[in-house]
Structures are given as C-alpha cells and as structure tokens.
C-alpha cells in the first residue's frame, strides 16, 4: 500500500501527497468509531480506489500535534510578531513560546514591520532581541519590503515542516507572499477599531516553500494552557529549565520556595525579570483553571 502525507483537509476530504502526486482521500469509518481525526501533516497509508482517489487506512505515529490549528508532525514554529500595528508584546510572544515549547517544537522569532518604528522604539526591540537570543532563540528583525533580508530568511524553511504562529494582523501571510510572490495567498487590512487583522485563511494546508513545507493555517485560535500542568510550565522556559536542578528543593515551583536558583538568577540579572513575571502569571493562570472531567 502506498503512503504519503496529508497536505490539506477540506470538506471531509484529505489530500495526500505521495511521490509527487496528490490523491483525494476519504477516511475509513474505523477512524470515526475510534474518535480519531486525520490531521494535515499526518503520514498515512492509503488504498487507491480510482484515479487520484483513495481511502486512508492507517495513520502513522505522530511526533506531535496541535489542536488549534489542527496539524501534526511539525518540527518548527516561526512566531511572527510585529513592531507596530499591532504593537509588540513580550507577554503575547511568551504565550506562543510556551505553547510551542510544550509540544517539543523548535521556535524561531520573526519581528516584522521594522520600517514603521522610530529609532527609540528600534533600540527597545533590539534590547528584547538580545534577551531572547541569550535564552537560545533565533530572532530576526526586518521589513517585508527589504528583499535582501527576505532572501536570507529562506534558510529557515528549507527541509523543515513549519507552522506560522502569531496574532492576526502581524503579517504572517504577507511574509509568505513576499518570500514567494507566486503563492498569491489572500490578506486583509488591519481593522482600525480593533487594532488587529482579520483571519483570511479558512482551512489548514501545507504548501511548498523554499525546499520545505509551511502550514498556511487560520492561526492559533486559542492561547490558553489547557494541556500544560503547573509542574510542566518551568520546562517551557529554557532559562528556567537549565537552572532547575540547582534549586534546593525538588519540585520547586520557583515562586515562594527558599533558596530557589531561579529567583536568584532573576535578582542577578541572568534571567530577564519580565520573563520571570510572565512565568508567574502563566503559573497562576494554570493553577486557577477549572478542573476538566
């Protein structure tokens, strides 16, 4: 039986790419009975029932999966933030980073619309960039109007399966169109009243870009931490994760405990205080959520 990867899901059909061909497939009823939904990104075994048509028989084990957007087997997330319109937010960026880290997906940070900010604001963004690079993240600042920079960004897509994350209006689709104008992906203007863009992508699809695959998705429709337990949160902050074993007490939550290596690192400036404050904010949010039954 042939195997391939689901590159699009639309109206009950799954489009599977296999050896350069695309097959329109349906899922077997057994998936519904087991309450399993094939996802874009899944590697599947399928049975050919007609010309470029078939039935999905088996879903191979997943490396990871996201629920919103529904996609599997992603190895990289490019988190797109804008310098302006909407304004740059470290707390929103850290939300995306925690969600991506919790799934074991490698994050890269893109800060767009640098042409819209004054020099003083640029200096602030450069300072933030240094903070995140010190944590270990790759950070790129640019304007999509700068073709020379866009060419250098192509390396991030090569040989990767990438999901683009970021709030509406930051320029995710515009970025993909700028890198490859032949994509002709649909974009909308920013809403002046809301200060954010409108969702323009209606379904999840993997598209070829620079020798890799990138997910054009409706975006992360939820930024809560429903799948993260309180004791798991610290590991989603690399600078905390790297110092956890130096805490005096096992199971330290890095909040009120004495002789906490994390709090000491914040006091000495080794950990950015705003990142630690975000950790505490997210921890409180997770601890106060209602239990699920």
Automatic annotation (TrEMBL):
Cofactor(s), names only, from the UniProt record: Zn(2+)
Keyword Hydrolase assigned: yes
Domain EngC GTPase: 72-221
GO cellular component terms attached to this protein's record: cytoplasm
Enzyme Commission numbers on file: 3.6.1.-
GO biological process: ribosomal small subunit biogenesis
Protein name per Swiss-Prot or TrEMBL: Small ribosomal subunit biogenesis GTPase RsgA
Organism the protein comes from: Virgibacillus salarius
Gene this protein is translated from: rsgA
């Amino acid at each position: 039986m042939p195997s391939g990867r689901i590159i699009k899901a639309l109206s009950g059909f799954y489009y599977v790419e296999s050896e350069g061909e695309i097959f329109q497939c349906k899922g077997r009823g057994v998936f519904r009975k087991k309450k399993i939904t094939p996802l874009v990104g899944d590697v599947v075994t399928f049975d050919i029932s007609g010309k470029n048509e078939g039935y999905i028989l088996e879903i191979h084990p997943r490396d990871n999966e996201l629920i919103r957007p529904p996609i599997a087997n992603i190895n990289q997330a490019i988190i797109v933030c804008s310098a302006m319109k909407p304004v740059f937010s470290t707390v929103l960026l850290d939300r995306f980073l925690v969600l991506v880290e919790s799934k074991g997906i490698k994050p890269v940070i893109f800060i767009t619309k640098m042409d819209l900010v004054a020099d003083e604001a640029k200096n602030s963004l450069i300072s933030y960039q240094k903070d995140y690079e010190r944590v270990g993240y790759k950070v790129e600042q640019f304007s999509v109007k700068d073709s020379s920079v866009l060419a250098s960004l192509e390396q991030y897509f090569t040989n990767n399966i990438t999901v683009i994350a970021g709030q509406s209006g930051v320029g995710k689709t515009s970025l993909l169109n700028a890198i490859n104008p032949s994509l002709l992906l649909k974009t909308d203007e920013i809403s002046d009243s809301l200060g954010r863009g409108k969702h323009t992508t209606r379904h999840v699809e993997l598209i070829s870009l620079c020798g890799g695959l990138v997910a054009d998705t409706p975006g992360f429709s939820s930024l809560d931490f429903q799948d993260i337990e309180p004791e798991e949160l610290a590991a989603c902050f690399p600078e905390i994760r790297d110092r956890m074993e130096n805490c005096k007490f096992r199971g330290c939550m890095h909040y009120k405990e004495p002789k906490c290596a994390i709090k000491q690192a914040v006091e000495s400036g080794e950990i950015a205080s705003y990142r630690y404050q975000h950790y505490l904010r997210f921890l409180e949010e997770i601890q106060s959520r209602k239990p699920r039954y």
